Amino acid sequence: MKTFNICFGILIALSASRFIPHPPNFTSLLALSFYIPVFFGLRYLPFVIISFAITDMVIGYHTGTHWTWGSILLIGLAAPLFKKNITSRIGGAFLGACVFFLITNFGVWASGMYGYTYQGLVSCFILAVPFFAYTATSTLLFSAVIETIYQYYKNRFLHN
To answer: Largest CB tally within 10 Å, which of 63, 134, 148, 159?
Structure first.
């Protein structure tokens, strides 16, 4: 039952942030893909990706879906390396946002949208900077929310 509750919670948290109107790339996806493996273990990472796939079925797939899912997988696999303390976790989540930016925008460039030139690659990344601002802000905001909930839970239930 605990596993079902965690998986359902992942789906609800991700769905809520993706279906409620929001600025581009302003979702809980990166924070969840980072924090789920940190707090619950790598065995729950597939549920993050499955939840992402379910919400993508509603929103629609795009040519860069595999780049996006791959970056989520990489962020989740690296996340346990940052679980030492809150500073490490927040830094790791922000690093995850940077990894997401690099991988997904490389994928956009690889799709041929900007041409297969160095200039096209640079243009792709420069034009993506405003989206990164949303990505970084949402990742840090949702990370702060997750950290707050974690600290409350830890103080309330684990240190009576």
So the answer is: 134
Query: By C-alpha distance, which of 135, 134, 110 is closest to 124?
Result: 110
pLDDT score, position 65: 84
pLDDT-derived band at 160 (thresholds 50, 70, 90) equals: low
Cβ–Cβ < 8 Å for 7, 36: no
In the chain, domain spans: 2-158
Which residue bears the tokens 């595999």? 66
H-type alpha helices, the chain: 2-19, 29-40, 45-59, 65-78, 86-110, 118-153
For the chain, what is the mean pLDDT? 90
- 66-88 pLDDT, tens per residue? 999 999 999 999 999 999 999 99
| Residue 159: pLDDT band with limits 50, 70, 90 | low
Cα–Cα distance measured from residue 26 to residue 140, given in angstroms and rounded to the nearest whole number? 10
Smallest CA-to-CA distance from 2 within 41, 55, 51, 32 is with 41
Category of 60 on φ-ψ map: left (φ > 0), alpha (ψ -120 to 50) or beta: left
